[in-house]
From TrEMBL:
<dbReference type="InterPro" id="IPR052967">
    <property type="entry name" value="Stress_Response_Assoc"/>
</dbReference>
<feature type="compositionally biased region" description="Polar residues">
    <location>
        <begin position="36"/>
        <end position="47"/>
    </location>
</feature>
<feature type="compositionally biased region" description="Polar residues">
    <location>
        <begin position="250"/>
        <end position="263"/>
    </location>
</feature>
<feature type="region of interest" description="Disordered">
    <location>
        <begin position="250"/>
        <end position="278"/>
    </location>
</feature>
<protein>
    <submittedName>
        <fullName>DUF2382 domain-containing protein</fullName>
    </submittedName>
</protein>
<feature type="domain" description="DUF2382">
    <location>
        <begin position="137"/>
        <end position="246"/>
    </location>
</feature>
<dbReference type="InterPro" id="IPR019060">
    <property type="entry name" value="DUF2382"/>
</dbReference>
<feature type="region of interest" description="Disordered">
    <location>
        <begin position="34"/>
        <end position="54"/>
    </location>
</feature>
<feature type="compositionally biased region" description="Low complexity">
    <location>
        <begin position="264"/>
        <end position="278"/>
    </location>
</feature>
<dbReference type="Pfam" id="PF09557">
    <property type="entry name" value="DUF2382"/>
</dbReference>
Amino acid sequence: MSQTVIGIFDYTSEAQEAVNYLVNNGFSRSDIDLSSRASETEGTSVSNDDDEDDNSIGGFFSNLFGSNDEAEKYTKVGRKGSIVTVHAKNDQEAESAAKILDNYGAIDVNERAEQYKSSTTASGLTGAVNTNEADSIKIIEEKMNVGKREVETGGVRLRSRIVEQAVHEDVRLRTERVRVARTNVNRPATEADLANFKDATIEMTEHAEVPVVAKEAFVTGEVSLEKEVQENNETVQGTVRKTEVDTENLTSQDNAITTKNSITGGSTTAGDDAGFYK
């Protein structure tokens, strides 16, 4: 079943890197859409088509989620970022796409929506305020933890069966045959001959050897299964993110401009006015 995976990025460069990685790892480019705002370029002129582009974003998420809070939340965050949409063909492909988008810096939409809500509330109450109180930027750094888990990679099965094969053995056999031997004699009969001159019967039995087969089983070998364990070192590669803070010294002219904004309550949000290119 096809699924749609969406990743919203702060920077178009991150979104483009994610798209390139997806394409290089088996995803079809025709199944990937990249929509980005030109908010990364300083001095971008305001386009007259901003309202039309914003409506396009809202319509996209309304069609995807329906007209509810979820669609409104994604629309609000998507207007200020670059959107990568992956049309996955199955659950496994969708899960793989989601992991890749996360690895390349896709933002947490729920968290970002809450930040926008808090920022809007504070801005409406105080305007642009210049204060001497020390503000702080949280420096966040990701660390990659590599663990191990055991997976099944294959195996060996032993199965015994009985087979028959023809064998040949030579044996020498003895066979007896009785034959009648007649000898011609011409002599006068003796008294002994005359005493045996009567009916008589003589018998002789024949014998023959025949093969006799007997079987005896012998153990000629043993087959068993044993495990051979090998260990090897493998390098795991990944990407982690961290916060880098740039320091800029403000001139007296910059302070004067800031003071003017704080008096009039004016504020600028260049991200809201940047053009959206679909």
